[in-house]
Amino acid sequence: MRRRKPTEGFLLCGLFFWTLLVHLISTCLAIQLEERMEIVRKVLKEVPLIDGHNDLPWNIRKFLKNQLREFRFGEDLRDITPWSTSAWSHTDLRRLKEGMVAAQFWSAYAPCSSQHLDAVQLTLEQIDLIRRLVNLYPQHMALVTTADGIEESHRSGKLASLIGIEGGHSIGTSLGVLRTFYQLGARYLTLTHTCNTPWADCCKVDEPGQVPHIGGLSHFGTLVVTEMNRLGMIVDLSHVSVPTMLDALATSKAPVIFSHSSAHAICNSSRNVPDHVLKRLSANGGLVMVAFYPHFVSCGEKATLKDVVAHINHIRDVAGVDHVGIGAGYDGVNLVPQGLEDVSRYPYLFAELLESEKWTEEDIAKLAGKNLIRVFKQVEQVRDQLEAQGMLPIDQSIPPEDILGRSYCRYSGPRT
After folding, report:
1. Alpha helix segments (H runs only) across 137-163
2. Cis omega (within 30 of 0) on the bond before 82?
3. 258 has which bridge partners?
4. CA 21 to chain centre
5. Where does the secretion signal sit in this chain (predicted)?
């Protein structure tokens, strides 16, 4: 029998202890993660987790032409085509429950190519789709239009479903259409998408070589914001240019939100929020709901959960813990960060934050939903104050010169 050399014995012994050490460290980390996950679950049972933006309704239009009889939302869509083969699909009721999501703003979106054409009709159809989807699952979902309604749905164990309109072109330059959307349940309007409206500049004008159309909000654009304040509709500044952000902040009497944006200082995408705007947002009382799309997070095609944490921490550092939330943008992106693959993964994000002594349970509660509920309630308070002051609906129309050459789909007869 061959005797091992002493050095071989030392190597084998060292390898054994190294393997044991790695196992012990891994076990310890797993225990720590599970402990943090338990804290997260406790917090999210007490406080509703609210996501500011999900594009599932547009995917239903894209894949199923809005025909809900073919949509099996209560099942795992990862096992059902076309969802199972699409990089754009991240949402179903099972995974929402697993992710402990209590409230979701569903996007009623019409593409920029519909501006001055059928944007209003498309948006109405998407609102109708969201309402029909909720009605199909009354045991699991509830249509919600108030801050109190979010908390009530959370207590009853139902997913509070809210409607957000993504793009000011959807109102067809009409305050009457804006009011109608509100009556149908829409509770925020994103002032632009990736196209200018006749009354507001989008983020594209901030990119190198681009020329602003207006330089922010036009006078009619300020009326849109003012009417939203009167209605109690949240002003959403995702997708808008920096001058539009500043004009809206100067105009709005209520807090505003960014429903799905991140920090410009970390990733200099025109879709993100610069620090000087974050400081103004803090004074306004609003919040940034952090998006997960890698191009907004890492300025590339790959990102991780830790990259998203960096954006949350930066916004907290600049604006304060009361001014940050979550607006992932699932089902509207074809790339997601590692560790945040779908709507089931939110608890892991909060658990990662709790690894730092900087974050307390109360801080996590604010990020998850308390901040958005506060903003929503303040928007409702401003509405009530303006009503008490006797403010009437704004009955002004957009100046004809603002839409000159783009009114080919408008009735040319008498207008108010």
Report:
1. 147-156
2. yes
3. 288
4. 42
5. 1-30
pLDDT attached to residue 7: 59
pTM of the model: 0.91
Whole-Å CA distances, 313 to 257, 322, 354: 17, 12, 12
Q: Of all residues in the chain, what percent carry a pLDDT higher than 70? A: 90
d(CA 295, CA 267): 8
Average pLDDT, the chain: 93
What is d(CA 214, CA 328) in angstroms, rounded to the nearest whole number? Answer: 30
64: its two tokens:
């199923």
Backbone angles phi, psi at 271, to 5 degrees: -85, -5
Could you identify the residue written with the tokens 């658990």?
Answer: 351
Q: What's 212's DSSP letter?
A: -
CB 233 within 8 A of CB 180: no
Sign of the torsion formed by the C-alpha atoms of 55, 88, 51 and 41: positive
d(CA 15, CA 176): 74
**Is pLDDT of 28 > 50?**
no
**DSSP 3-state of 141:** strand
Confidence band (pLDDT; 50, 70, 90) for 404? confident
DSSP assignments along 328-357, one per residue: --BTS-S---BT--SGGGHHHHHHHHHTST
- Beta-carbon contacts of residue 401 (< 8 Å; ≥ 6 apart): none
Q: What confidence score (pLDDT) does residue 17 get?
A: 52
Q: What distance in Å separates the CA atoms of residue 67 and residue 77, rounded to the nearest whole number?
A: 16
What is the rounded distance in angstroms from the CA atom of residue 336 to the CA atom of residue 293?
Answer: 6
Q: E strand or H helix at 42, and its extent?
A: helix 6-46
pLDDT band, very low/low/confident/very high, at 9 (cuts 50, 70, 90): low
Nearest of 286, 273, 276, 214 to residue 238 by alpha carbon: 273
Our CA angle for 128, 288, 62, nearest 5°, is 30
pLDDT of residue 23: 46
CA 312, 317, 321, 324 torsion-angle sign: negative
- Phi, psi for 48 (deg, rounded to 5): -70, 130
Q: How far is Cα 170 from Cα 164, in angstroms, rounded to an integer? A: 11
Across the range 106-133, mean pLDDT stands at 98
Given CA atoms 235, 239, 242, 243 in this order, what sign does their dihedral have?
A: negative
Q: CA dist 346 to 46, 71, 106, 258, Å?
A: 16, 24, 17, 19
